[in-house]
Amino acid sequence: MWRGAAAGLLCLAAACLLRHGFEPRARLLSAAELRRYRGAPGEPGLYLALLGRVFDVERGRKHYGPGGAYSRLAGRDATRAFASGDFPPAGLVDNVSGLSPPELLSIHSWLNFYRDNYEPVGKLVGRFYDENGAPTEALREVEAAIEEALKFQAETEQKKQQFPPCNSEWSSTKGTRFWCSRQSGGAHRDWAGVPRKLYRPGSQGSRCVCVRSTGPPWGQPDSSQHSDRGDLDNPHLEQYEGCHPLAEQCVLTG
Q1: What is the maximal distance between C-alpha atoms in the chain?
Q2: Tens digit of pLDDT for each residue in 22-67?
Q3: H helices then E strands: how many in the chain?
Q4: Cα distances (Å, whole numbers) of residue 113 to 27, 107, 108
Q5: pLDDT tens-digit profile of 219-229?
């Protein structure tokens, strides 16, 4: 009875640790060991590494094995190539310094892909993990940069939903026409909006966006205390001169 209770408590403790991110000690591989896993005859398997995480990609042999389109990624950590698409030897490295936020997001996307589709087998000792399997400062810096890129992406997407770009066209005879629809800017919504200039803080330039002209301001609950003008009173917006304030299109000549 007591043995059964003790076993149950151990299982419960293990489940709690796993829920809180505990991982059993991962297998640690050196770069030399990883090079043995390129899928060639006589080699022990087919592995690749991304940000120091090692995955068994045997199930994707037609892609990663000898002769496959991505065979150069096997047996190494070529993190930079996942961002740049650069497959010559100079690009098949784990150095990610100088990458842009979109490139870091590409690495993040690929890492999620491998986590979802391939078995993790360990960690590569080197740039991202030390000889004890602990994250290095280089890995922490990359992860922080990816976190910032994800935050910026979310903020950009929110802005796109709040202020979708206008449709626009230009002709030498009619000038520039801006207009709004329920799909303009690729942001599908249940309102069309009206064209306005949107200025970014600290910048003198502007771009045309579609602005909701009814209901409460963005991010505020629907209540009887708002002015039913949507986001028209946002301080970063400016009306196009010569255009009706509530028109869904605006033509600028000259």
Answers
A1: 91
A2: 344 579 999 999 999 999 999 999 999 999 999 999 999 999 999 9
A3: 6, 10
A4: 21, 10, 9
A5: 776 656 677 89
Give the long-range contacts of residues 209-217, CB within 8 A, separation 24 or more.
Answer: 209/163, 209/164, 209/165, 209/166, 209/185, 209/237, 210/163, 210/164, 210/165, 210/166, 210/180, 210/184, 210/185, 211/163, 211/237, 213/246
DSSP string, 162-182: HSPBPEEEEETTTEEEEE--T
Residue 138, both tokens: 């280089």
pLDDT at residue 227, as a whole number: 78
Rounded CA-CA distance 159/209 in Å is 10
Buried b (16+ CB within 10 A) or exposed e, 115-124: eeebeebbbb
| Res 233 pLDDT > 80 | yes
Give the per-residue pLDDT at 4.
44
Residue 187 has pLDDT above 90, yes or no: no
CA-based end-to-end distance of the chain: 90
Q: pTM score, two decimals?
A: 0.64
* Rounded Cα distance, 208 and 176, in Å: 12
* Cβ contact 88:149 at 8 Å: no
Give the SS3 label for residue 247: coil
Burial of 54 (0-12, 13-18, 19+ CB in 10 A): buried
Quickly list H helices, 186-246: none
Q: What is the mean pLDDT of residues 171-198?
A: 91
